[in-house]
Design a protein that fits this description.
Structural class: alpha+beta
Mean pLDDT: 95
Number of domains: 4
Strand order of the largest sheet: 6-9-10-22-21-20-17-11
Shape: globular
Oligomer: single chain
Strand content: 15-25%
Largest sheet: 8 strands, mixed
Bound molecules: aspartic acid
Number of helices: 16
CATH topology of the largest domain: BirA Bifunctional Protein, domain 2
Length: about 600
């Protein structure tokens, strides 16, 4: 037997017990004639004591870091206890030992605060995974997985696997493709998600489906995206939006309770997309803190109404007078910011990622006076009115951005988050959930002068908007006025779950009638032949009694990262890719040999960088 116990379980209750342990050597400390070794495995660290009689043997063997060691010995009480270690009250008085395997010196220390940089740790990920910090993340991931499965199982969901080698089902991203040897010149696509399969399973009568499943999207990797990632993918039949919200609120509450021991009893608010954009400038607002946007002037319409800027226009300040949009936030207690701090904020919004020209500020001092960078144009009375409009309190700093609608709103959203972070409003041990609903069904593609699906083409319009879609021609005759097209106002029967400013899940009630689905494909600029070629299987299935259905998918990696209090999903994936989509450990992707290429009837363009 290699071991009787793990390195994490022995305590004073086991005193005088004869045990056998096996694990990796964390440290070796020699003190004269005795030697201490910390032995580590997945479960913890146990101190070993090699007495005088073994020391000679040790001199010959020369134990090193990360050697795999087996020891036999007696559990003894430590004189020098370590309260930070679960096994810190005991040590093993070693009677015999055996080196099961040696190790070369690892390229970085296997410790919580390692000396290894990111690249090095990824190259030797199997060593990185030995580190306690990474192991904790893997454990959390497994706990979330288990909790989700338990909940879904209890609620009658069935885990059904769907294929990876499929036909391209566009969901907005580029497909990864796989050449078929047996069907020369033809390709499979890897699923961007199992979307159409789960809908087909509804047609088949499996009314509650789930899968913890890999999805593949060949996107340019913005920060913290992975080309392959995992979803908790779910679908239900005979449901409306409220049913889905209720079911998956239940799931997330269950995950909070079982993984974090958090009894999340707060009501989960449901916010419309318009409200989210209006108040926070983005569709996944972090509502752990206020600092809502004050719309001094905007091109964005909420409930069909637009803020026209009476308060600030015509003061001779061209930046505001001529801007499409002017938005503000009141930053609590920041009126006391120094000149330098204000300059830093201005530089921050001028960075290329944000791209604004400048930042206007109004200090609403604690004594009730005002001081502003635009005093010249707005008198005290005006500043007072603006402050009241922004719901500012004495001591607050009002920050104002002006420019084109989309860019300015986005910039303000970023600035709000940045300040929220700076002011300590975004604590990663505080969780706030939110539903965002009523997204636009379509987005306008300037490049193609047509509509594209904002979620995916299988999403149903809100019931009240179905007629608008059916009765109007999707063609956009006047690109400049696309916002006036009736399609611009059609809302989707879709919902996102947002946690601390991150979209952790999204889904929709689906179209389940062939004619409406065909209309949708037409709206997206697809010819009938193209729709049949790409989605004939789904359109066909809808003719055989497709039930009303809807679903949702959760970004499993992201959910784990947030619950683990981390910014990075990579920390929660055993073998992640880097920002260029490479696995630096495997050195993949890589070229393949000529024989393989020939079998696949593929020839490589010699100008391609990989073959240089
Ligand atoms: N398949 C969708 C996605 O991956 C989720 C859904 O609509 O259920 O975003």
């Amino acid at each position: 037997m290699y071991r009787t116990h793990t390195c994490g379980e022995l305590s004073l209750a086991n005193i005088n017990k004869q045990v056998t342990l096996a694990g990796w050597i964390q440290t070796v400390r020699k003190f004269g004639s005795i030697t201490f070794v910390d032995l580590r495995d997945r479960y913890g660290i146990t101190q070993l004591l090699f007495g005088e009689e073994l020391n000679k043997q040790l001199d010959e063997t020369a134990l090193g870091r990360e050697f795999v060691l087996q020891v036999k010995g007696i559990v003894s009480e430590r004189t020098n206890k370590n309260p930070n270690l679960s096994t810190g009250d005991i040590e093993i008085k070693v009677s015999s030992f055996s080196v099961l395997n040696k190790s070369v010196t690892p390229p970085f220390t296997i410790q919580d605060d390692t000396d290894g940089g990111d690249d090095l740790r990824m190259k030797f990920r199997y060593l990185d995974l030995r580190r306690n910090a990474v192991k904790k993340n893997m454990e959390l991931r497994y706990a979330v997985n288990r909790a989700a499965r338990n909940y879904l199982h209890e609620n009658n969901f069935m885990d059904i696997e769907t294929p990876f080698l499929i036909k391209s089902t566009p969901e907005g991203a580029r497909d990864f493709v796989v050449p078929s040897r047996m069907n020369s010149g033809q390709f499979y696509a890897l699923p961007q998600s199992p979307q159409t399969f789960k809908q087909l399973l509804m047609v088949s009568g499996y009314d509650r489906y789930y899968q913890v499943v890999k999805c593949f999207r060949d996107e340019d990797l913005r920060a913290d995206r992975q080309p392959e990632f995992t979803q908790i993918d779910c679908e239900m039949s005979f449901v409306e939006q409220e049913d889905i919200l209720k079911m998956f609120e239940g799931m997330i509450r269950h995950i909070f309770l079982s993984v974090k021991n958090i009894n999340y009893t707060d009501k989960i608010d449901v916010m419309t997309w318009e409200d989210a954009m209006w108040n926070y400038g983005n569709d996944k607002p972090d509502i752990r803190f206020g600092m809502k946007i004050a719309n001094l002037k905007t091109a964005f319409k909420k409930d069909g109404i637009q803020a026209r800027g009476e308060l600030i226009n015509d003061a001779g300040f061209a930046v505001f007078d001529n801007a499409e949009t002017v938005v503000a936030i009141a930053v609590p207690g920041a009126a006391a910011y120094s000149r330098k701090q204000l300059d830093e904020l201005t530089d921050w919004v001028k960075r290329p990622q944000i791209g604004m020209q400048g930042l206007v500020n109004i200090r609403y001092n604690i004594d009730g006076t005002y001081k502003s960078s635009v005093d010249k144009f707005y008198n005290e009375e005006k500043l007072k009115q603006i402050a009241a409009f922004c719901h500012a309190n004495p001591g607050d700093l009002i920050l104002i951005l002006a420019g084109k609608e989309e860019k300015t709103r986005k910039a303000m959203s970023e600035l709000r988050l940045e300040l929220g972070e700076k002011l300590g409003f975004r604590k990663n041990n505080e969780f706030k959930l939110l539903w965002v609903v009523d997204f636009p069904l379509f987005e306008y593609s300037e490049e193609d002068n047509r509509w594209v699906a904002r979620h995916h083409p299988f999403t149903s319009p809100k019931p009240a908007h179905i007629e608008v879609m059916i009765n109007n021609d999707p063609v956009i005759h006047n690109a400049a006025e696309y916002l006036k097209h009736p399609y611009a106002d059609i809302k989707a029967n879709a919902y996102d779950m947002v946690l601390n400013g991150n979209e952790i899940g999204g889904g929709s009630i689906r179209i389940f009638q062939r004619d409406l689905q065909e209309k949708m494909f037409t709206a997206l600029g697809m010819s009938q032949e193209e729709a049949l070629h790409k989605f004939g299987f789904l359109l066909g299935a809808f003719e055989y009694g497709a039930p009303p259905h809807g679903g949702i998918a959760f970004g499993f990696d992201r959910l784990c990262a947030i619950l683990g209090g981390s910014e990075s999903i990579r920390d929660f994936i055993a073998f992640p890719k880097n920002n260029s989509g490479r696995d630096v450990m495997l050195d993949a992707p890589s070229t393949i040999d000529d024989k393989q290429l020939k079998e696949l009837s593929i020839s490589i363009d010699k100008k391609s960088p990989a073959t240089n």
